[in-house]
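Deliverable D2.4 — example input (structure tokens):
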């Protein structure tokens, strides 16, 4: 029987893949009808923040999470918070990072490192919050919130991915959502807080996948960007063929024979995914990296050729330091943890297809680490550097110390009445109905590998452009009125590929989750559709709850005088 999170107990002996498949399995249970004012699909950081806000506004709420992991990326290894200007993060999101700081103020929480020895650029004694943390500490904060707010949270609840079956609608409003377990969740308002956007898709809301052409929204850095792809790039020639110099031998794995496409044109390719790896070099907490079952040496031939070249740069990943001698390890360099080109089928895939993609990413990354630490073609100096890292004993104990949360950098994106674009990110278009702010770079990881005109491997799709803080439109988190009147979408919101690349940060998702919950509760009280909600009323409540809706650049010294 599916039970609230507070009643769930798990064993720690299951292998990672077994737990993953449990998360994607159908439970033979007695179907139940569960009702609340607001139903949130997705127990991500955004979903949890939304649920907290619903309870604070005196409404009932249910969180239904398709997997058995809560907190999404925030509890899944992404401890190096990406945001840009942190001034724009307020409300419940900032409360989370303030809680993190309080926890780490206790010397007893530093088991593998002295607090005074931890150095990180984002830490400041003047800051009221801490923006780097271990996965289990983030989980601890969320678990406390769930208990304190007496939330009903159900895990292992997967939406039926068949239109007209998974979502029951009447008169332009969602009445119920139906799970593969047979359970039905009924509410007045619904929030799709998933990374995939399954609820919005099954509700018939218009969405897109991939990159738009520059011409579609008058952008300059969308679509194919082969000419400007200079970052995380090969510094010289790498042969793309299975047998060097022999085109008849076929391309190495991961190279798109149809790439790169027309410069600036749109396509269905999706920026690369990876796991944000929590690693440690503390000997007493470190487990060795073992060669994963399913390891295929050919998958790493490009890495080996790159490592043997004169232009290889190490380390081939970002080892951002987290407390207690741990890391948030992310992609960096030409061949790294991003599994480029291997996720195109994920956004619209079935649960089984997605599970297979997740498993391939897991095998690839564990195999990547093992190769760097052990392969005879790697120079000893490189192997010695990589061998210091292993999996932490005290993290992800139910999944063999490996995070179950793949970094879904981008999946479906809703197409609403307002589509956030490059122009909004750059401040050339400014919306008047802000529900939160973005502040991070317009950031796309590579989308494909192809053979360039010189006959070598080339990566394409990486874009990094700084932006000032900018407001995000309320109309970008709700569908068009004619599509659905009671659904909010704080993650897979209405944005172009490049604008989403800036918005897609965990603190922003938390901000938008809170704003979505506020709008849902106010619309219930007013008895109106979300599209008819009075924005000044919403704006007033958001500000009262600590949300930051606009940004004023600090005055310079001359201006202050």
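Example output (designed residues):
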């Amino acid at each position: 029987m599916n039970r609230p999170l507070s009643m769930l107990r798990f064993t720690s002996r299951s292998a990672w893949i077994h737990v993953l498949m449990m998360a994607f399995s159908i439970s033979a249970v007695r179907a139940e009808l569960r009702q609340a004012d607001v139903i949130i699909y997705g127990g991500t950081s955004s979903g949890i923040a939304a649920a907290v806000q619903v309870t604070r506004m005196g409404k009932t709420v249910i969180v239904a999470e398709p997997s058995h992991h809560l907190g999404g990326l925030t509890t899944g290894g992404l401890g190096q918070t990406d945001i840009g200007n942190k001034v724009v993060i307020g409300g419940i999101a900032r409360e989370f990072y303030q809680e993190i700081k309080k926890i780490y103020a206790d010397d007893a929480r530093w088991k593998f490192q002295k607090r005074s020895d931890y150095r990180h650029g984002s830490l400041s004694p003047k800051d009221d919050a801490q923006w780097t943390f271990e996965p289990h500490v983030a989980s601890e904060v969320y678990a406390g919130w769930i208990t304190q707010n007496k939330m009903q949270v159900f895990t292992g609840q997967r939406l039926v991915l068949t239109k007209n079956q998974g979502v029951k609608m009447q008169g332009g409003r969602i009445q119920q959502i139906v799970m593969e377990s047979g359970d039905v969740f009924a509410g007045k308002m619904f929030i799709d807080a998933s990374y995939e956007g399954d609820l919005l898709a099954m509700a018939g809301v218009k969405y897109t996948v991939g990159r738009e052409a520059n011409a579609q929204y008058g952008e300059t850095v969308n679509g194919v960007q082969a000419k400007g792809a200079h970052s995380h790039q090969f510094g010289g020639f790498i042969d793309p063929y299975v047998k060097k110099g022999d085109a008849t031998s076929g391309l190495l794995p991961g190279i798109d024979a149809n790439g790169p496409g027309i410069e600036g044109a749109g396509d269905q390719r999706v920026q690369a995914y990876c796991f944000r790896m929590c690693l440690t070099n503390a000997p007493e907490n470190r487990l060795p990296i073992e060669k994963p079952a399913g390891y295929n040496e050919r998958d790493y031939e490009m890495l080996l050729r790159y490592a043997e070249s004169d232009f290889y740069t190490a380390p081939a990943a970002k080892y951002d330091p987290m407390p207690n001698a741990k890391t948030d390890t992310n992609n960096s360099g030409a061949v790294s943890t991003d599994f480029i080109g291997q996720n195109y089928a994920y956004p619209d895939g079935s649960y089984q297809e997605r599970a297979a993609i997740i498993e391939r990413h897991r095998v690839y990354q564990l195999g990547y680490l093992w190769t760097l630490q052990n392969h005879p073609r790697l120079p000893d100096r490189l192997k010695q550097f990589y061998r210091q890292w292993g999996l932490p004993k005290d993290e992800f104990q139910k999944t063999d110390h490996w995070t179950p949360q793949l970094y879904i950098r981008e999946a479906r994106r809703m197409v609403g009445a307002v589509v956030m674009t490059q122009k909004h990110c750059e401040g050339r278009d400014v919306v008047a109905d802000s529900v939160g702010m973005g502040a991070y770079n317009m950031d796309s990881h590579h989308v494909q590998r192809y053979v360039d005109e010189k006959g070598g491997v080339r990566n394409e799709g990486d874009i990094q452009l700084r932006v000032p803080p900018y407001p995000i439109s309320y109309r970008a988190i709700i569908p068009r009125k004619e599509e659905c009147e009671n659904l909010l979408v704080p993650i897979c919101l209405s944005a172009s590929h490049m604008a989403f690349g800036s918005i897609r940060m965990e603190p922003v998702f938390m901000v938008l989750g809170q704003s979505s919950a506020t709008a849902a509760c106010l619309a219930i009280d007013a008895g109106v559709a979300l599209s008819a909600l009075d924005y000044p009323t919403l704006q007033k409540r958001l500000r009262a709850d600590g949300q930051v809706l606009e940004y004023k650049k600090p005055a310079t010294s001359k201006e202050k005088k």
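The first strand starts at residue 33 and ends at 41.
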